[in-house]
Amino acid sequence: MASLQQPSISLQSKLLPSSQLPRAVPSLNLSFSATFPSLKLTTSRPLHGGARMSATAASSYATALADVAKSNDSLETTSSDVEKVEKVFSDAQVLDFFANPTVDIIKKRQVLDEIVKSSELQPHTANFLNILVDAKRIDLIKEIAKEFEMVYNKLTDTELAVVSSVVPLESQHLAQIAKQVQKLTGAQNVRIKTKIDPSLVAGFTIRYGNSGSKLIDMSVKKQLEEIAAQLEVGDIQLAV
C-alpha cells in the first residue's frame, strides 16, 4: 500500500510583513451555494451543546463534499484528497495556524495555496478548504475527514480495516488480511489503513466494523502462531 507523505509546508515562508500586505482582501471565486448546494453555511458558534453541534456541522460539511464528488464522478479522488488534507492538518502547528483568529486571512490563503499545490488537490477540494477558512470552521477538519470517510464507505459499500503492527507488513500480507475481512463482513470493498504501534511488542491487530467495534488481536507472538492459519497469513515474518 502506498503511503501518503505529508507535504513539506513552511509557514514562515508565506507570512508577509504587514507593510507588504494588500489593503483589500482579494476576491475569490467561492460560490458556496453553487458548489455545495446541500449545505447552509454559518460562521456563528453554538453557545450550548458545542460538541454535539460541532459533530453535526462536521457531518453536514462532509456530506456536502461527498455530494459534489459524487456528482462529478470524483469520489475516489476526493477521498484521496481528504486523506492528504487529514495528514497535513495532523500537524498541530498547521492546525493552530489556521485556527488562530489573529492570523490575517490573506496569510492563511497563501499557506492554503501552498498546501493545495504541493498535495495536488482537486479544485473543488481547494474551494472547500477556502470555505472552511472563511467560515472559521477549519478547526473541524479532523472531524470532517472522519465523517467523510464514513459517508464514502457507505456510498461504496466499503469496509475499513485498521491494521496496527510493530513493523510494516508487506503488501501481499495486507492483501490477505483484506480478503479475510471481506469474507467476515461481506463488503464489496475493503480499505486497509496501517498504523505503527510499538506498544504491541510483537504481532498486529485488525480493527474493523462500525467505528472499529470488532477486533482481531494477534499482538502476541504465541497467539500469532496459534491462529495464523485461520487468517491464512502464516508466512508473515516479524522483527522482534
UniProtKB/TrEMBL annotation:
This protein's GO CC annotations: membrane
Pfam families: OSCP
The protein's name in its UniProt record: ATP synthase delta chain
Location relative to the cell: Membrane
Gene3D superfamilies referenced in this protein's UniProt entry, alphabetically: N-terminal domain of the delta subunit of the F1F0-ATP synthase
InterPro entries: ATP_synth_OSCP/delta_N_sf, ATPase_OSCP/d_CS, ATPase_OSCP/dsu
Gene Ontology molecular function terms on file: proton-transporting ATP synthase activity, rotational mechanism
Alphabetical UniProt keywords: ATP synthesis, Hydrogen ion transport, Ion transport, Membrane, Transport
Similarity section: Belongs to the ATPase delta chain family.
Self-association and partners: F-type ATPases have 2 components, CF(1) - the catalytic core - and CF(0) - the membrane proton channel. CF(1) has five subunits: alpha(3), beta(3), gamma(1), delta(1), epsilon(1). CF(0) has three main subunits: a, b and c.
Species this protein is from: Hibiscus syriacus
Lineage: Eukaryota, Viridiplantae, Streptophyta, Embryophyta, Tracheophyta
